[in-house]
Amino acid sequence: MTPTLVRQHLPHSGARPRIDQWARARDWAEIQERMLVPLYEAVYERLEVGPSTRLLGLGCGSGLALLMAASRGASVTGLQAHAPERLALARERLSAEARGARAPGDARLTDGEPADIGRPAEAGYNLVTAFEPVGCVAGDSEGLAGALAAAVPLVGSGTPVVLAGWGPPERCATSSVLRVATKLADRLRGQGSWRPALRDDLEDVAERAGLRPDGSGRVACPFGYADTDNAVRGLLSTGLFDAAVAATDRVQVDKEVREALHPYARRDGTVWMPNVFRYLIARTT
Q1: Which residues of the chain are under the pLDDT cut of 50?
Q2: Is the Cα torsion angle 193, 243, 247, 241 positive or negative in sign?
């Protein structure tokens, strides 16, 4: 998984659109990823992340959440599979921070899954995060429970594991834009189709992973963009619209997304969409 807003897979049917993965990774890192900063901050504040924290980030993507934890003094390990461009950006980010005035704690990045990093030489991790929000794409939690279960041997009993999800669609303005992906991808409908978040999405994943829920919270994460062009680039960087591009073409998707964004464009040209995200703190048994 990626701490991205969505999981990056397409339906098995249909052609895969040609995508400049480096440009997409840059758009994600420079435009879209920052939208979840309030979520990261709320979790880190609640769990008092600091120098004693040994964090394992599943789906670390381009590393913003890891960077924020490292800036608090935490030692961080990030896992990212199938997205070498984002992982390269994460390495760039963390190494650049290390050269700055405020050096982070130790950082380690691995291309792969929990089984690829092995057991830590010293004390195990005492915090696991899976910040990629589930609950807006059908099947977007597939594989997450397995990844969490695979991480359990790397941590001790009672270790907090954080999951994230989209809030109710009526509290997420971006939901109306995401529906464009489903409408355009009708003939590829199935995996990758938009669906509203369900109240117990996160609890269901935790239960399948053998984790015990131990608290939750909601965080306002508005999506704000400099202009409509910026919003289109940011939203397409999530991968949510890949099936729509495969079913139609990039020009059609671009046009429909712009139309869907129109109600959220302000007089100064900026785009603002209020959203609420939810997090669940579960613990290992």
Answers
A1: 1-4, 6-14, 99, 101, 190-191
A2: positive
Of 109, 259, 93, 129, which Cα lies nearest the Cα of 202? 129
pLDDT at 196: 62
The answer to whether the Cα torsion of 94, 99, 105, 107 is positive or negative is positive
| pLDDT confidence of residue 200 | 84
Q: At what angle do helices 64-71 and 84-98 cross, to 10 degrees?
A: 20
C-alpha span between 25 and 148 (Å, rounded): 25
Which tens digits make up the pLDDT trace of 226-247?
999 999 999 999 988 888 888 8
Amino acid present at 157:
S
- Give the pLDDT score at 7: 45
Q: How far apart are CA 71 and CA 49, in angstroms?
A: 10
- Rounded CA separation 166/56 (Å): 22
The pLDDT, as a whole number, for residue 101 is 46
- In sequence order, what are the beta bridge partners of 110? 79
Q: How far is the CA of 224 from the CAs of 172, 270, 274, in angstroms?
A: 13, 7, 8
267: left (phi over 0), alpha (psi -120 to 50) or beta: alpha
Radius of gyration of the CA atoms of the chain, in A = 18
